[in-house]
Specification:
Distance between the termini: 91 Å
Largest sheet: 4 strands, mixed
Order of helices and strands: HEEHHEEHEE
Strand content: 15-25%
Shape: elongated
Helix content: 40-55%
Number of helices: 4
Number of domains: 2
């Protein structure tokens, strides 16, 4: 083997070694965030298993009433929410908090109302609520509309109860 071939082989080996170290380092750097996320999920599972859930409430602004007058209030939701539309509707139909009750606030939404589904298309918002909403008067629908208007713009609201348009 000539001197030139030996130098070329050493340089090739050195370059390959540097590339392999760089690739390994890159793999570890890329893999590390996933490891951290996996540890976080594992910790969360352990907390859940031991009934020590971490709560990250979502704060939603909504319209309530005091002596017939509209009042803006904030409520905390401890649910997983799909998007802003669902978040706003869930906030509108949420039961009164102890703080809201102590402030003398009222809601026209019947207790136990659940959101079945919500969607938006071309400025129309479709809201499907559970059968408890059948007891509600016109004020309840206006309350939901007033809360929705705080966060969203829409042309028309279409309410449904258990899939039947009202």
């Amino acid at each position: 083997m000539t001197e030139r071939n030996r130098t070329s082989s050493v340089l090739t080996a050195a370059v390959l070694f540097i590339i392999s170290v760089a690739v390994s380092g890159s793999a570890i750097y890329t893999w590390f965030p996933y490891t951290v996320e996996r540890l976080r999920i594992t910790d969360h599972y352990e907390l859940w298993k031991n009934e020590a859930m971490i709560e990250h409430p979502i704060i939603v602004e909504r319209i309530l009433y005091r002596n017939g007058e509209e009042i803006k209030s904030e409520t905390a939701l401890n649910i997983e929410v799909v998007d802003d539309l669902h978040k706003t509707i869930e906030g509108a139909i949420a039961p009164l908090s102890e703080k809201e009750k102590s402030e003398g606030l009222e809601t026209y939404i019947p207790e136990g109302v659940r959101l079945i589904g919500a969607s938006e298309k071309d400025g129309y918002v479709f809201i499907d609520l559970s059968e408890e909403m059948k007891e509600a008067g016109e004020e309840a629908y206006k309350e939901i509309a007033a809360t929705l208007s705080l966060e969203n713009s829409f042309r028309k609201l279409i309410f449904m109860v258990e899939g039947t348009q009202i």
